[in-house]
Design goal:
Blueprint lengths: L7 E8 L3 H19 L3 E5 L4 H7 L5 H10 L2 E6 L9 H13 L4 E7 L17 E7 L9 E4 L7 E4 L5 H17 L4 E6 L7 H14 L5 E6 H10 L6 E4 L1 H14 L7 E5 L5 E5 L16 H13 L3 H16 L13 H11 L1
Parallel strand pairs: 1-2, 1-3, 3-12, 5-10, 8-9, 8-10
Antiparallel strand pairs: 4-5, 4-11, 6-7, 11-12
Helix pairs in contact: 1-9, 1-11, 5-6, 7-8, 9-10, 10-11
Bound molecules: adenosine-5'-triphosphate.
Length: 354
């Protein structure tokens, strides 16, 4: 058998603001691991983002989307958002476009506290905050279905329609249970607002009950999303896996990012199992600190770790998390976490630990 590593093709889109800076750090970590473990990573960089849009109007070429689907294993994205593009049209085309057109139905966001020093909750430690959120990523309130009537008049009507399909709800709920089973986790919590949103969220309730019956070893419980927010602060230890819709997942995972130590530490994957999937830090382009060399690269590095799991190297993600934890324990962090290191120094520290 050939000793050559399988080629894994990664599309790199740095994007805007600190996006390219933190993605470069993630790639340094990936390159280090590739050399050590012969993963066979191949990177191809794409010039997409606000600069490109302002230069020639390109947001996301349709043929590129097809190429990503057909020939790449993963996409590593930095961040999108630029004050010069107030409509954010490029971000919508690139990020929402990828989620919808590549059918990346799982938005997976781990909420894992690595060192209690960085948690704003009193007395909470890593044993209390260790969960994953499965956010539905292709429907809900993000499809743009709706309209405006009599816009700009006193009689204006604006409608935003939440789309919940049986297929969409079922596959995200199944993914959450499958993850819990695979990782030996105790429970899956489904969160909705079925008391107010009686049609769509009734569908979530029924599907959750049905799928849950197929997993007798896993405890199931339900919380309205307002109660979930309270419980994440009051008793985060209750949660192993949370599954919820697109909008609630967006909001709840930002709360989660804070209890795990802030936006500079929150990683995410936009996943379709077995197909090209996109990995990105949860934070935005942070124009206020772009170009200064002080952005925290750890969220991007942890996202690169999630990508390694998608590529079949879960053992290497575990190593990445351990190295990041080592840096947090030793206060080898950027300023917003109370440290003194710059972006590159933090990555150097991660690589040294790896
Ligand atoms: P977007 O709309 O693109 O999500 P935003 O302005 O709402 O952007 P961020 O870009 O994430 O949100 O920035 C929010 C705050 O967090 C800013 O003050 C920013 O400097 C800070 N921040 C975000 N990411 C990082 C990071 N990786 N390292 C340090 N600070 C960060």
């Amino acid at each position: 058998m050939s000793q050559q590593a399988a080629n894994k093709k990664i599309a790199v889109i740095g994007g805007d603001g600190i996006g390219p800076e933190v993605v470069a750090e993630g790639i340094r970590v990936l390159t280090h691991l590739d050399r050590a473990h012969n993963i066979g990573l191949q990177f191809e960089h794409f010039d997409l983002g606000a600069d490109r849009y302002l230069k020639d109007g390109t947001t996301m070429p349709p043929e590129l989307m097809q190429r990503l689907a057909d020939t790449f294993d993963a996409i590593f994205l930095g961040a999108l958002g630029d004050p010069r593009v107030p409509s954010n049209v490029h971000a919508k085309d690139i990020l929402l476009g990828s989620r919808f057109q590549l059918d990346l139905f799982i938005n997976l966001r781990p909420i894992k506290l690595l060192n209690s020093r960085y948690c704003p909750l009193k007395d909470a430690g890593p044993e209390d905050i260790n969960m994953v959120v499965f956010r539905e990523n292709t429907e809900g309130l993000y499809t743009g279905i709706g309209g405006q009537f009599k816009r700009g008049t006193a009689d204006e009507v604006a409608l935003e329609t939440e789309m919940n399909t049986r297929k969409g709800v079922e596959r995200i709920i199944r993914a959450a249970f499958a993850y819990a089973k695979k990782h030996g986790l105790k429970s899956v919590c489904m969160s909705d607002k079925a008391n107010a949103m009686r049609h769509g969220h009734d569908l979530w309730q029924r599907v959750f009950a049905e799928v849950g019956e197929e997993y007798p070893g896993i405890e199931t419980f339900h919380l309205y999303v307002d109660v979930l927010c309270m419980e994440l602060v009051r008793a985060p230890k209750r949660f192993d896996v949370i599954v919820t819709n697109n909008l609630f997942g967006d909001i709840v995972t930002d709360l989660g990012a804070q209890i795990q130590g802030g936006i500079g530490l929150a990683a995410s994957g936009n996943i379709h199992p077995g197909q090209v999937s996109l990995f990105e830090p949860v934070h935005g382009s942070a124009p206020d600190i772009a170009g200064k060399g002080i952005a925290n690269p750890l969220a991007a590095i942890l996202s690169a770790g999630m990508m390694l799991t998608h590529l079949g190297h879960a053992d290497l993600e575990t190593k990445v998390i351990a190295a990041v934890k080592g840096c947090l324990d030793a206060k080898q962090v950027t300023r917003e976490l109370g440290g003194t290191l710059n972006t590159t120094d933090v990555t150097n520290a991660v690589i040294e630990r790896l």
